User: Fold these one by one.
Assistant:
Number 1:
Amino acid sequence: MKEIELSYGENEDGRTVNPEAFGVSGIVQLGITRLSRRQEPTENHIHRNLTEIGFCLRGSSVLHSRDQAFPVLAGSFFVNQPNLPHDLSTRPCGLYVYSFLLRNRWDDGGIF
């Protein structure tokens, strides 16, 4: 299974930042994606020991997880559990998504 590497920076379709670099623990990545053109679907992938939470501000997509398809519509949140394979099957022009990755700590039996 492909594990998505964390990257920080900006390009024409979005920006990402690492809040931990500024002393905010537990939030590994904040991101904004604004697609100005249609993109290929994401590969099926995991985020090792990280929970991904996203908010679709504009546009729509389809999230595949647990052998099911979930619509991601404007105004909706989606959550991807740690180590669970998932992908977005559509990334149309105009899709606008805020997302963040949270570090999971299992030593105390909980998250964060």
Note: The mean pLDDT is 86.
Number 2:
Amino acid sequence: MKPTIAITVGDYNGIGPEVALKAIAAPVVRRICTPVLVGPPEVFNRVASRLSLRMRFLPFPSATGEGGRTVQILEPSGGTPVRFSPGRLSADAGAAAGAAIRESVRLVLGGDARALVTAPVSKHALHLAGVNAPGQTEFLQRLTHSPHVAMMLISGSLRVGLVTIHTPLRNVSRQLTGTLLRERVTVIHRALRTDWRIRSPRLAVLALNPHAGEGGDIGNEEQRVIIPVIASLRGEGMRLEGPFPADAFFARYAPGTYDAVVAMYHDQGLIPLKMWARGHAVNVSVGLPLVRTSPDHGTAFDIAGRSIADPASMIEAIRAAVALASHRPAATRKERR
């Protein structure tokens, strides 16, 4: 039986609904899962009409034929009125995005779906709607009461996990403590073993400073934080190497050399990964009690409403969600509230 995958609307003034609908129209997606769209039905109907997608939407849960054009939609309760304006920042769109995430978490934890795929959101719109979290990863951590979570982007055999996530660059050094680094490396290591079934993962740890700090001449975070944590975790049996200067590491990287790369901050790891992936990377939140993936791009307000968004990363996110969910036991079905 194909797994049910919850797919959120994202920010409906961005390209989220478009890439979600294009993705679930793809035969490769319909072959591997039963998608459930989560968000305002009005949005999906309007975008499907604009895209000339012949889909029949039914409220979740409904019977849908194998391989047909029938798609289930779960409308979150207590939603705000839809003010559809592609390309515009809106608190209403942020509220709808937040409500879809909350409803999808309930769906998966309640056993009615096997995994969650989130369409892109505007962090600013979420904040305008009262969602006080830096991003979806942190919002999901709060909703699931998860103590330790990490953000990882993947493309084929290249997996990059982050120590600090949506942190302003000026604050990265201050946040980079031994406790945080140990926590994030441990979460990434555990996810490789459980979700990817890698028995003894091998991790590369990047330095924070250029040239790995030049022995402390241009930064001491390597000597003060990174090297001691690597040594400590090696003593516990983890296979860790580094710290590597980031520029030299990615210049020489070969596929499959390591099972994951641990980057100290967002752009350090994600710029090379996204260049490597060419629009096919997937964001995975590791450490959650559910499988959550998302595309590697944002809301793209500049092209919203023009019907030209590429669904490739959304398709890969759905495929990754199905694969990772197959390595986890299904949640016990509960009565949905």
Note: DSSP finds twelve helices and twelve strands in the chain.
